[in-house]
Amino acid sequence: MERLVGKKAPIFEMKAVSGDGQEFIKVKLDDYKGKWLVMFFYPLDFTFVCPTEITGYSKRVDEFKKLNAELLAVSTDSEYSHQAWIKGNLGKINFPLASDFTKTVSRDFGVLVEEDGVALRGLFIIDPEGNVRYSVIHDLNIGRSVDETLRVLAALQTGGLCPIDWHPGEETL
């Protein structure tokens, strides 16, 4: 797989459902120009670890907004599955769920498990100019850390060198 960090993010356009499950929308990379985008892939709706991540990020959306960042969650489920999940046991969230039903976006970002047709838990931070600045890909069984995502986002925005265990408000090198 070719690295994405330091390169322009793959261009995408996907069907999605709004966080309240009330409307179908389209989301595309250009929608996020001028803002940071935290785009994260998850395997499937109606599973076990996925709702913990989605609701965890949703609860802290204001912290991302303070850093001029938007959140977008993506899986290979349809937008109809996303809507049923939101209206069912997931509940309202504060960002859209995008459908990569064709698996093109998951493949372009290097997270698709071809034989299963699902995405690994990939997370990408894209800067306001559309460049991938950070990526991490987890095994299907391991959830991500909202704290670590916020820490890395803040570190990227310093423009400085951030040593191990750096936290916002601390000196950079």
From TrEMBL:
One of its GO terms (molecular function) is thioredoxin peroxidase activity. The keyword Oxidoreductase applies. Belongs to the peroxiredoxin family. AhpC/Prx1 subfamily. It comes from Caloramator australicus RC3. Keywords: Antioxidant, Cytoplasm, Disulfide bond, Oxidoreductase, Peroxidase, Redox-active center. PROSITE patterns: THIOREDOXIN_2 (PS51352). GO terms for biological process: cell redox homeostasis; cellular response to stress; hydrogen peroxide catabolic process; response to oxidative stress. It is found in: Cytoplasm. InterPro entries: AhpC/TSA (IPR000866), Peroxiredoxin (IPR050217), Peroxiredoxin_AhpC-typ (IPR024706), Thioredoxin-like_sf (IPR036249), Thioredoxin_domain (IPR013766). SUPFAM superfamilies: Thioredoxin-like. CDD domains: PRX_Typ2cys (cd03015). Residues 3-158 form the Thioredoxin domain. Signal peptide: none annotated. This is Alkyl hydroperoxide reductase subunit C-like protein. The active site is at C50. GO terms for cellular component: cytosol.
